[in-house]
């Protein structure tokens, strides 16, 4: 234990003194976490530029236009007079959507003839397009129901009876876990945690082979008493402690400041975060032990970690991906972490709901640390053999 303690202290000194460590592990996280949080300071998209093409110029079309203007998601900025003008404005990025009220809209409604209202959206911007559609659809459905209701009441029908005919089914909607579609609350934790995976793997990718660069591998051998297990266990605890500092930054400063997440679930978040950290440290140690060349191991680490956010299922469901992409997602610890993170932090469910995800993260540790020990043993064996040769020569 004394030997491991000495290695932990030695590693902390290296982290604080070597730029390649303290920048990646202590400076960049502060900048990165704050940067991510401030991107989505507005929380959600509102007042999207919208155009109206009204060929009917009737009481009904003007009323629907008024209702569209009351939608928080939309801001009517232009009146247009042709489809070509709509396309041009969308292509120029001046509007995100438009609606077309055809000629004789009101007449067709009162004659009980169907009338088509056309909504134009820029599907190249998926999220704004969906918000525009949601707001416009709500107005058209509500407006259509109101028109039918007015016609029925004019025939002398009682209001409650007319409402039952005009709108026979009431839809009650409950949005759970992010009811306001808050981008800051939804995206920022995912971006921060995937950033932590990359930071941990890249920093630990340098934990072993960077000793050759700094010419301190013999010193590490002496400090560890020639034991690879001592060296890797000590370095693991040192890097885990630094990851806990970043956890404190995330859970007790960034999240409370921006009012993100569920404070009551912080303990469960700590458990799954610690397992993610250990899995990432194990992967970093494995890469560091496998490749003596720092540049090569860096390329491997970046290739491995870069697509984590895309393949994790955060923005697109994994079950909809090709089977080979689904398997690739499973070999990254962030995928299992994310599944458990949503359960125990966003939904504040008991830990046993994430038991399968915790086991997967544990499996990364069980595989990566022993493999790293076996691989790094070769490098310690070289030092040991060189010392024997030197001793015999003396």
What does the model show?
By secondary structure, this protein is mainly alpha-helical. It is about 70% helix and about 5% strand. It contains 17 helices and four strands. It has a four-stranded mixed beta sheet with strand order 2-1-3-4, sandwiched between helices. β1 (about 50-55), α3 and β2 (about 75-80) form a beta-alpha-beta unit. α8 (about 185-205) runs antiparallel to α11 (about 230-255) and α12 packs parallel to α17 (about 355-394). The two termini are about 35 Å apart. About 35% of the residues are buried. The model has no long low-confidence stretch (mean pLDDT about 85).
Computed structural class? mainly alpha
Euclidean distance between termini CA atoms: 33 Å
Q: Describe the biggest sheet? A: 4 strands, mixed
List low-confidence stretches. none
Backbone CA Rg: 30 Å
Quantity of strands, as a count: 4
Q: What general form does the structure show?
A: elongated
What amount of the residues lies in strands?
5-15%
Rounded mean pLDDT is 87
């Amino acid at each position: 234990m004394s030997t491991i303690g000495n290695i932990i202290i030695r590693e902390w000194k290296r982290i604080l003194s070597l730029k390649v460590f303290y920048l990646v592990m202590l400076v960049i996280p502060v900048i990165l976490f704050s940067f991510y949080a401030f991107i989505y300071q507005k929380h959600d998209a509102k007042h999207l530029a919208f155009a109206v093409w009204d060929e009917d110029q009737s009481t009904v079309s003007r009323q629907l236009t008024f209702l569209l203007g009351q939608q928080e998601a939309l801001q009517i900025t232009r009146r247009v007079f042709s489809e070509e003008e709509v396309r041009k404005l969308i292509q120029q990025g001046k509007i995100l959507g438009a609606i077309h009220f055809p000629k004789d809209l009101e007449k067709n409604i009162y004659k009980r003839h169907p009338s088509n209202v056309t909504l134009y959206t820029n599907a190249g911007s998926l999220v704004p397009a969906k918000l525009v559609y949601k707001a416009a659809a709500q107005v058209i459905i509500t407006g259509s129901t109101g028109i039918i209701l007015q016609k029925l009441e004019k025939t002398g029908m009682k209001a409650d009876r007319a409402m039952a005919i005009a709108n026979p089914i009431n839809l009650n909607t409950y949005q759970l876990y992010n009811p306001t579609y808050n981008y800051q609350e939804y995206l920022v934790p995912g971006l921060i945690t995937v950033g932590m995976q990359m930071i941990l793997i890249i920093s630990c990718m340098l934990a072993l082979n960077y000793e050759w660069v700094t010419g301190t591998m013999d010193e590490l051998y002496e400090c560890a008493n020639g034991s690879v297990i001592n060296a890797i266990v000590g370095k693991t605890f040192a890097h885990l402690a630094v990851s806990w500092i970043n956890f404190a930054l995330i859970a007790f400063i960034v999240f409370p400041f921006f009012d993100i997440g569920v404070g009551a679930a912080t303990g469960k978040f700590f458990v799954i975060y610690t397992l993610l950290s250990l899995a990432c440290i194990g992967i970093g140690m494995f890469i560091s032990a496998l490749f003596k060349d720092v540049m090569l191991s860096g390329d491997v680490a970046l290739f491995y970690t870069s697509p984590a956010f895309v393949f994790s299922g955060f923005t697109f469901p994994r079950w909809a991906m090709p089977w080979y992409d689904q398997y690739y997602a499973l070999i990254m610890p962030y995928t299992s972490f994310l599944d458990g993170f949503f359960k125990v932090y966003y939904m504040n469910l008991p830990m046993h709901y994430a038991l399968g995800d915790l086991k997967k993260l544990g499996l990364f540790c069980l595989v990566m640390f022993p493999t790293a020990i076996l691989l790094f043993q070769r490098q310690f064996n070289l030092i040991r053999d060189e010392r024997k040769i030197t001793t015999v020569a003396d």
